[in-house]
Fold Molybdate ABC transporter permease.
Amino acid sequence: MDLTRSLPEHGAPVSGSRTRFGRAALTLLIAVLLAIFLLFVTLPVASLFLRISPEAFLRSLAEPVVLDALSLSLATATVSTAIVVLFGTPLALVNARRDYPGRALVDTLTDLPIVLPPAVAGIALLMAFGRRGVVGQYLDQFGISIAFTTVAVILAQVFVASPFYIRQARASFEAVDRLYEDAARTLGASPATVAFRVTIPLAWGGLVSGAILSFARALGEFGATIMFAGNFQGRTQTMPLAIYTTMQGDLDAAISLAIILVAISFAVIASVKIMTRRSL
């Protein structure tokens, strides 16, 4: 009996040491995995900054191809984001507050551009709005041509970037407590007044975050743009297209454009995090 009672006392230190060893091994494994992942992500980005000198970077910024691509990208991304916000906000609000037949289908079609390959999106837009497209053939009769123009760049950006705003906007509207909306209605506010004076202000942080994400997605669009709008400097050549073109002859210009996009992407992530914290 005395021997049996003494067994746990002798086994306890062994079990405790095994537990400490297991925790240490798990901690080491997690640290190694995190280090590998961070190295995999940061090394390519850091290589851009190490590959070019500050002088070469500033010199490349003065080249026409860089200036044209930068100005065109910022302008088209701004316009496309404004279009997405203008048309996407009512859609997100309706889907968040109304239950109607076919809402699940609308949600599915809204998310489709996220998983659709960019090349498929580009050729689909071309088949719809090209000169011989389903809609483009009728526009061509009035002398209206969309494909391979700046308008085509904007349409491609709207197509691929809209889900990023609409999804975020809907989630933000769903997070708004309906108690405030009901209180406004009992005071005689119309549906439009409730939306503009109550719902949208309360969801403002999420809406801004969605708009920033949509802007970043539009700014980085490549596949749909080159398929539907082409790659013409000063007219349809955005920064991603300019990177693809200039890296074949002017690597410094390509790296400079890439660094600008990295800086914008970092600013987008930081802005979204700040807006998300403020909305909590």
Observations:
- The chain has two domains: 1-51, 55-279.
- The mean pLDDT is 89.
